[in-house]
Amino acid sequence: MRMRLHESAAAWSYCVLPFLVFTILYECLLTGAGLLADRILERSQGEAFAFAAVHAADLRTFLIGAAMLLSLLPFLKAAGDQVRKNRMVFFSEGGPHWKIRQRREDALYAMFFLAGVLFFGIGLNLWLGSAGVTDASDTAAGLSTLAGKTSFPVSAAVFAGAAPFAEEVVFRCLTYGRLREKAVDLVPAMLVSSLLFGFYHGNLAQGIYAAVMGMLFCMAYELTGSLAFCILLHAALNLASLFLAGAAAAGAFGGTGGAAYMGMGAVIGISLYILEKRKDRHER
Protein backbone atom coordinates (compact mmCIF):
# COMPACT_ATOMS: atom_id res chain seq x y z
CA MET A 1 0.00 0.00 0.00
CA ARG A 2 1.37 3.39 -0.97
CA MET A 3 2.18 5.80 1.81
CA ARG A 4 0.39 9.15 1.69
CA LEU A 5 2.96 11.85 2.33
CA HIS A 6 0.53 14.00 4.34
CA GLU A 7 0.13 11.16 6.86
CA SER A 8 3.71 11.49 8.09
CA ALA A 9 5.39 14.68 9.25
CA ALA A 10 8.67 12.76 9.40
CA ALA A 11 8.33 11.87 5.71
CA TRP A 12 7.73 15.51 4.80
CA SER A 13 10.79 16.58 6.79
CA TYR A 14 12.93 13.91 5.16
CA CYS A 15 11.87 14.96 1.66
CA VAL A 16 11.96 18.76 1.90
CA LEU A 17 14.86 19.16 4.35
CA PRO A 18 17.52 19.32 1.58
CA PHE A 19 15.57 22.13 -0.14
CA LEU A 20 15.13 24.12 3.08
CA VAL A 21 18.71 23.77 4.30
CA PHE A 22 20.24 24.40 0.87
CA THR A 23 18.09 27.49 0.29
CA ILE A 24 18.85 28.98 3.70
CA LEU A 25 22.58 28.31 3.36
CA TYR A 26 22.63 29.70 -0.18
CA GLU A 27 20.79 32.89 0.76
CA CYS A 28 23.13 33.48 3.72
CA LEU A 29 26.24 32.85 1.65
CA LEU A 30 24.83 34.95 -1.19
CA THR A 31 24.39 37.88 1.19
CA GLY A 32 27.94 37.40 2.42
CA ALA A 33 29.22 37.18 -1.16
CA GLY A 34 27.46 40.44 -2.04
CA LEU A 35 29.05 42.19 0.94
CA LEU A 36 32.45 40.78 0.02
CA ALA A 37 32.07 42.00 -3.57
CA ASP A 38 31.09 45.46 -2.33
CA ARG A 39 34.16 45.65 -0.09
CA ILE A 40 36.46 44.55 -2.92
CA LEU A 41 34.95 47.08 -5.32
CA GLU A 42 35.22 49.87 -2.72
CA ARG A 43 38.97 49.28 -2.71
CA SER A 44 39.16 49.04 -6.48
CA GLN A 45 41.13 52.29 -6.67
CA GLY A 46 44.13 50.34 -5.48
CA GLU A 47 46.27 48.56 -8.06
CA ALA A 48 45.62 45.14 -6.50
CA PHE A 49 41.86 45.48 -7.01
CA ALA A 50 41.89 47.29 -10.36
CA PHE A 51 41.04 44.08 -12.22
CA ALA A 52 37.97 43.54 -10.01
CA ALA A 53 36.69 47.02 -10.82
CA VAL A 54 36.84 46.35 -14.55
CA HIS A 55 35.19 42.94 -14.17
CA ALA A 56 32.66 43.70 -11.43
CA ALA A 57 29.90 41.57 -12.99
CA ASP A 58 32.31 38.66 -13.40
CA LEU A 59 33.29 38.94 -9.76
CA ARG A 60 29.69 38.93 -8.53
CA THR A 61 28.75 36.03 -10.80
CA PHE A 62 31.77 34.01 -9.66
CA LEU A 63 30.80 34.57 -6.01
CA ILE A 64 27.23 33.43 -6.78
CA GLY A 65 28.61 30.16 -8.16
CA ALA A 66 30.94 29.73 -5.19
CA ALA A 67 28.05 30.31 -2.75
CA MET A 68 25.94 27.73 -4.58
CA LEU A 69 28.64 25.05 -4.47
CA LEU A 70 29.48 25.74 -0.83
CA SER A 71 25.80 25.40 0.05
CA LEU A 72 25.82 21.96 -1.58
CA LEU A 73 28.75 20.57 0.40
CA PRO A 74 26.68 19.23 3.35
CA PHE A 75 24.61 17.11 0.92
CA LEU A 76 27.27 15.40 -1.17
CA LYS A 77 27.42 12.17 0.85
CA ALA A 78 23.62 12.01 1.14
CA ALA A 79 23.33 12.61 -2.61
CA GLY A 80 25.68 9.71 -3.37
CA ASP A 81 23.56 7.39 -1.24
CA GLN A 82 20.34 8.74 -2.74
CA VAL A 83 21.51 8.12 -6.32
CA ARG A 84 21.76 4.41 -5.56
CA LYS A 85 18.34 4.36 -3.88
CA ASN A 86 16.77 6.22 -6.80
CA ARG A 87 18.03 3.66 -9.30
CA MET A 88 16.37 0.90 -7.31
CA VAL A 89 13.08 2.81 -7.16
CA PHE A 90 13.06 4.02 -10.78
CA PHE A 91 14.09 0.69 -12.29
CA SER A 92 11.72 -1.51 -10.31
CA GLU A 93 10.13 -3.81 -12.90
CA GLY A 94 6.53 -2.98 -13.60
CA GLY A 95 6.90 0.65 -12.58
CA PRO A 96 5.81 3.50 -14.84
CA HIS A 97 7.57 3.71 -18.21
CA TRP A 98 9.35 0.38 -17.62
CA LYS A 99 9.56 -0.34 -21.35
CA ILE A 100 11.22 3.03 -21.95
CA ARG A 101 13.71 2.34 -19.16
CA GLN A 102 14.65 -0.96 -20.77
CA ARG A 103 15.95 1.11 -23.71
CA ARG A 104 17.57 3.80 -21.59
CA GLU A 105 20.89 3.25 -23.40
CA ASP A 106 19.28 4.25 -26.69
CA ALA A 107 21.33 7.32 -27.64
CA LEU A 108 18.90 8.41 -30.35
CA TYR A 109 15.99 8.53 -27.90
CA ALA A 110 18.08 10.58 -25.46
CA MET A 111 19.06 13.02 -28.21
CA PHE A 112 15.45 13.56 -29.25
CA PHE A 113 14.37 14.03 -25.65
CA LEU A 114 17.16 16.56 -25.12
CA ALA A 115 16.18 18.44 -28.28
CA GLY A 116 12.51 18.55 -27.28
CA VAL A 117 13.24 19.92 -23.81
CA LEU A 118 15.70 22.48 -25.21
CA PHE A 119 13.24 23.78 -27.81
CA PHE A 120 10.40 23.99 -25.30
CA GLY A 121 12.53 25.63 -22.61
CA ILE A 122 14.01 28.25 -24.95
CA GLY A 123 10.55 28.99 -26.34
CA LEU A 124 9.09 29.41 -22.86
CA ASN A 125 11.96 31.73 -21.93
CA LEU A 126 11.41 33.91 -25.00
CA TRP A 127 7.63 33.89 -24.70
CA LEU A 128 7.73 35.05 -21.06
CA GLY A 129 10.04 37.89 -22.07
CA SER A 130 7.93 38.97 -25.05
CA ALA A 131 4.72 38.75 -23.00
CA GLY A 132 6.11 41.43 -20.67
CA VAL A 133 6.24 39.19 -17.59
CA THR A 134 9.85 40.22 -17.24
CA ASP A 135 12.52 41.93 -19.29
CA ALA A 136 13.49 39.82 -22.29
CA SER A 137 17.19 39.98 -21.61
CA ASP A 138 16.67 38.85 -18.01
CA THR A 139 14.49 35.97 -19.10
CA ALA A 140 16.82 34.71 -21.79
CA ALA A 141 19.80 35.04 -19.49
CA GLY A 142 18.27 32.36 -17.30
CA LEU A 143 19.24 32.31 -13.65
CA SER A 144 20.33 35.88 -13.05
CA THR A 145 20.21 39.35 -14.51
CA LEU A 146 24.00 39.29 -14.16
CA ALA A 147 24.27 36.60 -16.83
CA GLY A 148 23.78 39.11 -19.63
CA LYS A 149 26.50 41.39 -18.22
CA THR A 150 29.13 38.77 -17.44
CA SER A 151 31.84 37.48 -19.78
CA PHE A 152 30.85 34.25 -21.49
CA PRO A 153 33.46 31.96 -19.81
CA VAL A 154 32.36 33.03 -16.32
CA SER A 155 28.67 32.85 -17.22
CA ALA A 156 29.12 29.37 -18.69
CA ALA A 157 31.06 28.14 -15.64
CA VAL A 158 28.40 29.36 -13.22
CA PHE A 159 25.08 29.17 -15.09
CA ALA A 160 25.88 26.07 -17.18
CA GLY A 161 28.17 24.42 -14.63
CA ALA A 162 27.78 25.15 -10.94
CA ALA A 163 24.06 25.98 -11.04
CA PRO A 164 22.82 22.90 -12.94
CA PHE A 165 24.99 20.61 -10.83
CA ALA A 166 23.83 22.03 -7.48
CA GLU A 167 20.15 22.35 -8.45
CA GLU A 168 19.85 18.88 -9.96
CA VAL A 169 21.44 17.33 -6.88
CA VAL A 170 19.06 19.16 -4.52
CA PHE A 171 15.80 19.18 -6.47
CA ARG A 172 15.95 16.01 -8.57
CA CYS A 173 18.30 13.65 -6.76
CA LEU A 174 17.37 14.50 -3.17
CA THR A 175 13.92 16.13 -3.15
CA TYR A 176 12.28 14.24 -6.03
CA GLY A 177 14.23 11.06 -5.30
CA ARG A 178 13.19 11.01 -1.66
CA LEU A 179 9.56 11.61 -2.57
CA ARG A 180 9.66 8.62 -4.90
CA GLU A 181 11.53 6.59 -2.29
CA LYS A 182 8.67 7.25 0.15
CA ALA A 183 6.29 5.74 -2.42
CA VAL A 184 4.73 9.03 -3.47
CA ASP A 185 3.06 8.65 -6.88
CA LEU A 186 4.87 9.93 -9.95
CA VAL A 187 2.81 13.06 -10.71
CA PRO A 188 2.52 14.37 -7.09
CA ALA A 189 6.26 13.88 -6.59
CA MET A 190 6.98 15.81 -9.79
CA LEU A 191 4.61 18.61 -8.76
CA VAL A 192 6.04 19.03 -5.25
CA SER A 193 9.66 19.00 -6.46
CA SER A 194 8.93 21.37 -9.36
CA LEU A 195 6.94 23.86 -7.28
CA LEU A 196 9.78 24.01 -4.76
CA PHE A 197 12.19 24.54 -7.67
CA GLY A 198 10.04 27.41 -8.93
CA PHE A 199 9.76 28.96 -5.46
CA TYR A 200 13.55 28.77 -5.05
CA HIS A 201 14.04 31.04 -8.08
CA GLY A 202 12.44 33.91 -6.22
CA ASN A 203 10.36 35.80 -8.81
CA LEU A 204 7.24 35.15 -10.86
CA ALA A 205 8.73 34.83 -14.35
CA GLN A 206 11.64 32.61 -13.38
CA GLY A 207 9.41 30.71 -10.96
CA ILE A 208 6.92 29.80 -13.70
CA TYR A 209 9.71 28.85 -16.08
CA ALA A 210 11.60 26.82 -13.46
CA ALA A 211 8.47 24.95 -12.32
CA VAL A 212 7.61 23.91 -15.88
CA MET A 213 11.18 22.90 -16.69
CA GLY A 214 11.44 21.15 -13.33
CA MET A 215 8.61 18.83 -14.40
CA LEU A 216 10.55 17.94 -17.55
CA PHE A 217 13.78 17.40 -15.61
CA CYS A 218 11.92 15.08 -13.21
CA MET A 219 10.55 13.17 -16.18
CA ALA A 220 14.05 12.86 -17.64
CA TYR A 221 15.36 11.53 -14.32
CA GLU A 222 12.46 9.11 -13.94
CA LEU A 223 12.91 7.74 -17.47
CA THR A 224 16.69 7.48 -17.58
CA GLY A 225 17.66 7.08 -13.93
CA SER A 226 20.72 9.17 -14.75
CA LEU A 227 21.42 12.27 -12.68
CA ALA A 228 24.29 13.08 -15.05
CA PHE A 229 21.82 13.21 -17.96
CA CYS A 230 19.63 15.68 -16.02
CA ILE A 231 22.64 17.86 -15.23
CA LEU A 232 23.62 17.81 -18.92
CA LEU A 233 20.06 18.65 -19.95
CA HIS A 234 19.88 21.56 -17.49
CA ALA A 235 23.35 22.82 -18.47
CA ALA A 236 22.53 22.68 -22.20
CA LEU A 237 19.34 24.68 -21.66
CA ASN A 238 21.13 27.33 -19.61
CA LEU A 239 23.93 27.48 -22.18
CA ALA A 240 21.44 27.94 -25.01
CA SER A 241 19.77 30.72 -23.01
CA LEU A 242 23.11 32.48 -22.63
CA PHE A 243 23.65 32.39 -26.38
CA LEU A 244 20.17 33.83 -26.94
CA ALA A 245 20.43 36.55 -24.28
CA GLY A 246 21.87 39.16 -26.62
CA ALA A 247 19.40 38.44 -29.40
CA ALA A 248 16.43 38.55 -27.03
CA ALA A 249 17.60 41.82 -25.51
CA ALA A 250 17.77 43.30 -29.02
CA GLY A 251 14.22 42.17 -29.71
CA ALA A 252 15.24 39.59 -32.32
CA PHE A 253 12.68 37.12 -30.98
CA GLY A 254 9.07 38.06 -30.42
CA GLY A 255 6.12 36.13 -29.05
CA THR A 256 5.82 34.26 -32.36
CA GLY A 257 9.42 33.07 -32.10
CA GLY A 258 8.91 31.82 -28.55
CA ALA A 259 5.70 30.05 -29.52
CA ALA A 260 7.48 28.44 -32.48
CA TYR A 261 10.22 27.04 -30.25
CA MET A 262 7.65 25.72 -27.76
CA GLY A 263 5.70 24.19 -30.63
CA MET A 264 8.78 22.40 -31.96
CA GLY A 265 9.51 21.02 -28.51
CA ALA A 266 5.92 19.85 -28.12
CA VAL A 267 5.98 18.19 -31.56
CA ILE A 268 9.13 16.27 -30.66
CA GLY A 269 7.59 15.18 -27.34
CA ILE A 270 4.32 14.07 -28.95
CA SER A 271 6.24 12.21 -31.66
CA LEU A 272 8.20 10.29 -29.04
CA TYR A 273 4.98 9.45 -27.19
CA ILE A 274 3.30 8.17 -30.37
CA LEU A 275 6.40 6.13 -31.23
CA GLU A 276 6.34 4.50 -27.80
CA LYS A 277 2.63 3.66 -28.13
CA ARG A 278 3.18 2.07 -31.53
CA LYS A 279 6.07 0.01 -30.25
CA ASP A 280 4.00 -1.14 -27.27
CA ARG A 281 1.22 -2.31 -29.62
CA HIS A 282 3.70 -4.21 -31.83
CA GLU A 283 5.29 -5.89 -28.79
CA ARG A 284 1.87 -7.11 -27.64
Q: How would you describe the overall organization of this protein?
A:
The chain has 284 residues and is an all-alpha fold. It has one domain (77-283). Helices cover 79% and strands 0% of the residues. It contains twelve helices and no strands. The longest helix is centred in the first third of the chain and has 34 residues, at 9-42.
Q: What tags apply to this protein structure?
A:
284 residues, mainly alpha, 12 helices, globular
Average predicted local confidence, pLDDT: 75
The fraction of residues in strands falls at under 5%
Radius of gyration: 20 Å
Let me know the largest β-sheet.
none
Would you identify the regions where 5 or more consecutive residues have pLDDT less than 50?
135-144
**Gap from first CA to last CA:** 29 Å
In helices, the fraction of residues equals over 70%
Total domains, how many?
Answer: 1
Per DSSP E runs of 2 or more residues, the count of β-strands stands at 0
Q: Helices and strands, in N-to-C order?
A: HHHHHHHHHHHH
Number of helices: 12
Derived from helix and strand composition plus strand pairing, the structural class reads mainly alpha
**Overall 3D form:** globular
What is the topology?
Blueprint (H helix, E strand, L loop, with lengths): L8 H34 L7 H5 L1 H17 L3 H15 L7 H5 L4 H24 L5 H6 L10 H30 L4 H15 L3 H21 L2 H23 L5 H29 L1
Helix pairs in contact: 1-3, 1-8, 3-8, 4-8, 6-10, 6-11, 6-12, 8-9, 8-10, 8-11, 9-10, 10-11
